[in-house]
């Protein structure tokens, strides 16, 4: 009952945020303007249909998928401080993107998301080859963090040695929804197929929480479950990062908030985390766009400003 | 014999812990695995529960190699309670016990009336009904141990494998647990448990298996196993054997 009312409340908050994201920005629209904006004849058609609508949809898709990936990773790594970042996926995608921008600055930006996607998936593959399927969760996490740091320092090296392209790279690396439209929405849509697969694994993720021995005794194969769940998280994270850049803290904070709201049963936790992630990124992008128009801050900065204190509080509390 | 080992060697990496063990688990009994620290009793228990793969030899379920049988079939026949458990976040006691029904539920884990009845029953047997809606992470060590035991019982298996189940419990809950094991045994369960307290084992178990350095030294009824010579050989203790004045089982008193 409590879960149901909380989900309803979250849904309402999200709907309000969707309306606000469509209404506010460099030009603020009234509700009637907003409705008329869906007609091709309206003067606001371009603002709504071509600019704010795809961007709002993208915030929901990316926010939800990042939160879902984070929940999945925390679930099978069995560490509440884990996030897709510990797999080195976002840093790998970042490195690939910065490599493209600095080494081939003349290449069309069309290739940027594809390069980042390959980089992210490649980073996960490297982690897998180093650790293998039977390694412990903690070994996987530590190796992933070490690799992520390596990719991060390579990014720094590239940017310091090629200062001409540093601005574009920096903008991309903070994670932003700026200038994204229908093309990006269609690029990310196919990855939604992984969401039902994640739900299908929910029962097994619950049992992984009970430790390897008990999970095995209950008939769950730990290596298979871990591989499947991490593969889903890697795919979705790489897809999101390739479109929006690494949006910090979302994959870490959203699962925690969701767990505090509805508990740790993944049948409920997974959908709730998706809602929380959507809400957080909608809020972050709204604030980023409206805090000082027409100047826009990257949404990644907003999620970091919201997420970092929460993360610190979390660390403080787990002591 | 449903469960048996044949020239079983188990270990971690290159280190052999259980060496060439041949063992038939007597059906329908309460069996205690005894021995000093590091003798391989937990390792043997884990390989009986198919957690550890044999280095050589095999564990058999009836006439089949345990590791070739379907995971879900085994989950309905063998339940294991390990020595230590993680503390899951945001899980209520009732949820955790309900996870024991997983081998019987569908992909979404929905519980039917029978599942709910069994969950309620095992929570009553382990006296955790009052804790049902608390988070597992808020409980004391002894309470948590009983919750995990309830989860293992909810799995409703003919075989129950327990690794030092009394460790975190106070004395009265230890006694209650041993009584519960007797009751479950009367209902037909075979129970294999690692125990540290030799007198507890002699009083409540039908069959004792004594291990030392990865091998079985002796096994049989408490009367035949619990001798001065065995305690000297296995535990390097000088002790006298007396008869428990109430249960009439043997008990040892260290000199």
Low-confidence region ranges of chain B: none
Number of helices of chain A: 15
Mean pLDDT of chain A: 87
Low-pLDDT ranges of chain A: none
The quaternary structure here is heterodimer
- CATH topology value of chain B: Rossmann fold
The tally of strands of chain B reads 12
Give structural notes:
The complex is a heterodimer of chains A (319) and B (255). Chain A is mainly α and 319 residues long. Chain A has a single domain, classed as ABC transporter involved in vitamin B12 uptake, BtuC. In chain A, 75% of the residues lie in helices and 0% in strands. Chain A has helices at residues 2-23, 31-36, 45-77, 89-103, 111-131, 137-161, 166-173, 182-188, 194-200, 202-208, 212-217, 222-244, 250-262, 266-290, 299-318. Chain A is globular, with a radius of gyration of 20 Å. The two termini of chain A are 32 Å apart. The model of chain A has no long low-confidence stretch (mean pLDDT 87). Chain B is α/β, with parallel strands linked by helices and 255 residues long. Chain B has a single domain (3-220), classed as Rossmann fold, CATH 3.40.50. Chain B contains 9 helices and 12 strands. Chain B has helices spanning 41-48, 71-75, 93-99, 113-125, 141-154, 171-186, 198-204, 222-225, 228-235, and strands at residues 3-12, 15-24, 30-34, 56-61, 64-65, 78-81, 159-163, 190-194, 207-212, 215-220, 239-243, 250-254. In chain B, strands 6-7-8-3-9-10 form a 6-stranded mixed beta sheet, with helices on both faces. In chain B, β7 (159-163), α6 and β8 form a beta-alpha-beta unit. In chain B, α3 runs parallel beside α5 and α4 (113-125) runs antiparallel to α5 (141-154). The radius of gyration of chain B is 19 Å and the shape is globular. The model of chain B has no long low-confidence stretch (mean pLDDT 92). At the A-B interface, α10, α11 and α13 of A face α2, β6 and α3 of B.
């Amino acid at each position: 009952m409590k879960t149901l009312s909380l989900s309803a409340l979250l849904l309402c908050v999200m709907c309000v945020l969707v309306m606000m994201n469509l209404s506010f920005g460099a030009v603020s629209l009234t509700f009637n303007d907003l409705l008329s904006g869906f007609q091709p004849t309206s003067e606001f058609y371009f603002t709504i249909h071509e600019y704010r609508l795809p961007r709002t949809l993208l915030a929901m898709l990316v926010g939800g998928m990042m939160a879902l990936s984070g929940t999945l990773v925390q679930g099978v790594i069995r560490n509440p401080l884990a996030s897709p970042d510990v797999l080195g996926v976002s840093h790998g995608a970042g490195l690939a993107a910065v490599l493209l921008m600095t080494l081939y600055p003349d290449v069309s930006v069309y290739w940027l998301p594809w390069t980042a996607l390959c980089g992210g998936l490649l980073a996960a593959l490297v982690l897998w080859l180093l650790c293998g399927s039977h390694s412990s969760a903690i070994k996987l996490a530590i190796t992933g963090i070490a690799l992520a740091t390596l990719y991060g320092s390579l990014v720094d090296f590239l940017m310091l040695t090629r200062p001409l392209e540093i601005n574009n790279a920096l903008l991309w690396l903070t994670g932003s929804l700026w200038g994204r439209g229908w093309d990006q929405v269609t690029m990310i849509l196919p990855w939604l197929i992984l969401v039902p697969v994640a739900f299908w694994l929910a029962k097994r993720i619950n049992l992984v929480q009970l430790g390897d021995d008990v999970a095995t005794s209950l008939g769950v194969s730990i290596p298979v479950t871990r591989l499947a769940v991490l593969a889903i998280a890697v795919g979705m994270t790489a897809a999101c990062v390739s479109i929006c850049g690494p949006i910090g803290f979302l994959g870490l904070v959203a699962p925690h908030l969701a767990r505090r709201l509805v508990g740790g049963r993944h049948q409920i936790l997974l959908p709730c985390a998706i809602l929380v992630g959507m809400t957080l990124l909608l809020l972050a992008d709204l604030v980023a766009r409206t805090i000082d128009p027409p100047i826009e801050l990257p949404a990644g900065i907003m999620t970091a400003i919201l997420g970092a204190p929460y993360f610190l509080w979390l660390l403080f509390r787990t002591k | 014999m449903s469960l048996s080992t044949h020239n079983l060697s188990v270990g971690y990496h290159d280190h052999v812990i259980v060496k060439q063990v041949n063992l038939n688990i007597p059906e329908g009994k309460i069996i205690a695995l005894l021995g000093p620290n590091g003798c391989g009793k937990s390792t043997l228990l884990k390989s009986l529960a198919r957690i550890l793969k044999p280095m050589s030899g095999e564990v058999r379920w009836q006439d089949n190699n345990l590791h070739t049988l379907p995971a879900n079939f085994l989950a309905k026949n063998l339940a294991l309670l390990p020595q230590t458990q993680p503390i899951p976040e945001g899980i209520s006691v009732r949820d955790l016990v309900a996870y024991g029904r997983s081998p019987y539920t569908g992909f979404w884990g929905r519980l039917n009336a029978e599942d709910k009845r069994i969950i309620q029953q095992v929570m009553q047997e382990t006296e955790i009904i009052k804790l049902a809606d608390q988070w597992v992470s808020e409980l004391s060590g002894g309470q948590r141990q009983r919750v995990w035991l309830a989860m293992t019982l909810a799995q409703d298996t003919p075989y129950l494998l327990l690794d030092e189940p009394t460790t975190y419990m106070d004395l009265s809950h230890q006694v209650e647990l041993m009584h519960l094991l007797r009751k479950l045994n009367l209902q037909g369960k075979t129970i294999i448990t690692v125990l540290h307290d030799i007198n507890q084992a002699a009083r409540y178990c039908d069959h004792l298996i004594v291990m030392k350095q990865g091998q079985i030294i002796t096994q049989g009824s408490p009367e035949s196993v619990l001798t001065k010579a065995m305690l000297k050989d296995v535990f390097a203790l000088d002790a006298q054997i007396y008869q428990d004045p109430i249960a009439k089982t043997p008990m040892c008193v260290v000199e």
